[in-house]
Amino acid sequence: MDDNTRTWLRDLFGDPPRDDTRGPGLDRETILRQNDMAGKVVHVTIPGQLVEDADGNPIGMTPNLTESSYFGVCMTLRNLAEAGLTPDDVPNIRIVDEPRKGQQ
User: Fold this and answer.
1) Rounded to an integer, what distance in angstroms lies between the CA atom of residue 46 and that of residue 65?
2) What 3-state class would DSSP assign to 95?
3) What is the pLDDT of residues 64-101, one digit of tens each?
4) Which residues have a Cβ under 8 Å from the Cβ of 45 and sit 6 or more positions away?
5) Quick one: pLDDT band at residue 11, thresholds 50, 70, 90?
6) N or C, which end of the chain has less CB nearby within 10 Å?
7) What is the C-alpha separation between 25 and 76, in angstroms, rounded?
8) What are phi and psi of 79, to 5 degrees?
9) Three-state DSSP class for residue 67
10) Rounded Cα gap, residues 97 and 51, in angstroms
């Protein structure tokens, strides 16, 4: 696509929306609940898959799968500070370093 076409499309439809889906973050109560759950066994249900006939019409679902796992939580100091907490407030949460530019 050349620059003239891009310009024409921007004029026609406007600039695309910014890809900014960041929410407000975790609040204090949620972090404290996660701290209480850390190290405990939790059960996670994975929904079944849709089953279709040869024509693509849905005819059923496979069974759900339930798995057990230990609940673990990692956060950065910034996550805690934004909620008004310190590492002493949440001893069961693992504190990790902030990601550096280019890391995910």
Assistant:
1) 5
2) strand
3) 999 999 999 999 999 899 899 999 999 999 999 887 77
4) 64, 65, 66
5) confident
6) C
7) 12
8) -55, -45
9) strand
10) 44
Q: What is the mean pLDDT of the chain?
A: 86
Residue with tokens 């910034």: 78
Closest CA to 47 of 67, 59, 64, 60: 64
- What is the rounded distance in angstroms from the CA atom of residue 64 to the CA atom of residue 44? 10
Distance CA 23, CA 83 (A): 14
What DSSP string describes 8-64? HHHHHH-SPPP-----S---HHHHHHHHHHTTSEEEEEEPPPEEE-TTS-EEEEPPP
Buried b (16+ CB within 10 A) or exposed e, 58-68: eeeeeeeeeee
